[in-house]
Each structure stands twice: as structure tokens, then as C-alpha cells.
Design a protein that fits this description.
- By secondary structure, this protein is mainly beta.
- Helix content is 9%, strand content 62%.
- The protein has a single domain, classed as Beta Barrel (Porin), CATH 2.40.160.20.
- The chain contains one helix and 17 strands.
- The longest helix has 24 residues, at 2-25.
- Residues 1-23 form the signal peptide.
- InterPro entries: Beta-barrel_OMP, OMP/PagP_B-barrel.
Length: 278
């Protein structure tokens, strides 16, 4: 009996000494962290917005043609004898103010209608014949109305590059065309013309409602009558069209929906309880 008790004691001592070794080899329970919360953008994408813009533009006149008159030998009045073109025609730069209303259709598509008033730009031109050379001056202003569509390419760090195009009309107004060195004048003409535009730029989220917009726009206005006939001068005259390069900046304010600037929201938040596995 003594031997049996002694053997049992040795067995317990051996087990106590060996347990740390075996315990080191046992796999420790692993703690799996809860998955991170899932974010998603608001699903209500569409929304109405208003916009305001200011620009500096430089316009080029493609050319100016005019009719020439000569005194009828029968003293019956002036008769048309031919046509000529200006030797040169230049428009100086000017500013414009614009406003519009639009709708964001999806993450990548929006549309608006805009109205821009171009303040007067100074015009300088010249004509000549075999005998004389004259300087012609005037001023040009315009109201440009366009229906536009844009493609927002994507948003990175709040910046969204875009491209767009517009179609519409412009009312072009020319002031009196005159030679400052003589008494010859021609009344300026005012008329509606076809117009289109191409634009590219980028917008930046200032807040979840307000977007800063900056970009470039090229617009073309169809040619039309520039000035009327006058008894003391030639006429009428027609410009061949106006190409305009604009550097634009403005703000857009969206009333509802998601304009791409709203912070993502948490779709769901899993319980942060650890999961143990063997």
C-alpha cells in the first residue's frame, strides 16, 4: 500500500512539472474583431439647384462685310454698286454675369438653363479703298441663352471634373459704328442669332449644399447684321460670326437630394462583441 501511494505521489509531481510544457504547445484562443461599419452614399441623388457665374471673355469677330453705294448719275438716289470687307476687326475683352436653374439627374449627369449678359466690349476696325482709309469704332453687348447638359466624370477629395455642351440663342447688340475722324456713322443693329457652347471644368464641395464651379467655355454665335445703311455712308454691314473664349467661376446651391458632397452615412453597425474560435 505504501508503494502504491508513493507511485501516485510521483505521478502527481511529474504531471505538475510537465503541465507548463504541454500548455505552451496548446493553441491560444483567437479573438476576431467585429467587422468595420459599412458606409453608403444617400440614395436620393437628384435635386434642383440654382447657379450664379461671372466671367472674363475674349471675343473674335470672324470678319465683317458691307455693301458700298455710289451716287446715281440721274440724281435718283444712292444705288448699290458692290460689296467689300473690313481690313481688320477686333473686339477687346469684357466681363459677363450669369444665372441659371438646373437639375442633377444622377451621379454623373445634370442639366441646366443659363442666361449670361455680356457687358459692352470695345470694337475697332478699319476699311480702305484706292483713295482713303478709315477707322471704324463701336461697342458690342449680348444676351446669351443656353440649354446645357453636363457629364460629371467622378469625385475625388471633393473635386469633380466635368465636360458639357449647350445650345440656344444670343441677342447681339451693336452700338453705332462711326469713324472718329469724320462725320460718317451707321446705326448699329440688334438681332437674335443661333448659338452653341462647349465647356469643361471642375467643381469643389464647399458644403453639403454649396459647390464652387470653375471652368472654361467656348461659345459660337452665328453671323448677322452689324449695322444699317446711312445716306452719308455705306451699308448695311454683316459680321460673319463671333467666337468667344471664357474663363468662368461661380457657385451652385442645391436645394434637395444628394449633390455628391454629402458625407457617407453608416448603413449598419455590427455589434462589437469578440468571437472566440479554437
Amino acid at each position: 500500500m505504501f508503494n502504491t501511494a508513493r507511485k501516485a505521489l510521483f505521478a502527481l509531481l511529474f504531471a505538475g512539472m510537465a503541465w507548463p510544457v504541454f500548455a505552451a504547445d496548446l493553441p491560444e484562443p483567437q479573438v476576431e474583431e467585429a467587422p468595420p461599419p459599412v458606409y453608403e452614399q444617400p440614395v436620393d441623388v437628384g435635386g434642383w439647384y440654382i447657379r450664379g457665374d461671372i466671367d472674363y471673355h475674349k471675343s473674335d469677330v470672324s470678319g465683317i462685310d458691307y455693301s458700298t453705294y455710289s451716287l446715281d448719275p440721274c440724281n435718283c438716289g444712292n444705288i448699290l454698286v458692290g460689296g467689300k470687307s473690313f481690313d481688320y476687326a477686333k473686339l477687346k475683352g469684357g466681363f459677363s454675369l450669369g444665372a441659371g436653374v438646373g437639375y442633377k439627374i444622377s451621379d454623373h449627369l445634370r442639366a441646366d438653363v443659363t442666361a449670361d449678359y455680356w457687358f459692352k466690349s470695345n470694337f475697332n476696325g478699319g476699311t480702305s479703298d484706292l483713295v482713303t482709309t478709315s477707322t471704324e469704332v463701336s461697342k458690342m453687348s449680348a444676351l446669351l441663352l443656353l440649354a446645357n447638359a453636363y457629364v460629371d466624370i467622378g469625385t475625388w477629395h471633393g473635386i469633380t471634373p466635368y465636360v458639357g455642351a449647350g445650345i440656344g440663342g444670343a441677342r447681339v447688340k451693336w452700338d453705332t459704328v462711326y469713324d472718329p475722324n469724320t462725320t460718317e456713322t451707321n446705326p448699329g443693329a440688334s438681332n437674335w442669332r443661333f448659338a452653341y457652347a462647349l465647356m469643361a471644368g471642375a467643381s469643389y464641395c464647399l458644403t453639403d449644399k454649396v459647390i464652387l464651379d470653375a471652368g472654361y467655355r467656348f461659345s459660337h454665335i452665328q453671323g448677322g447684321r452689324m449695322f444699317e445703311w446711312d445716306v452719308s455712308s455705306a451699308g448695311p454691314g454683316f459680321d460673319r460670326g463671333i467666337n468667344t473664349h471664357e474663363v468662368r467661376g461661380g457657385l451652385r446651391y442645391q436645394f434637395g437630394g444628394n449633390n455628391g458632397c454629402a458625407a457617407p452615412v453608416v448603413a449598419y453597425q455590427p455589434e462589437p462583441e469578440p468571437i472566440y474560435t479554437k
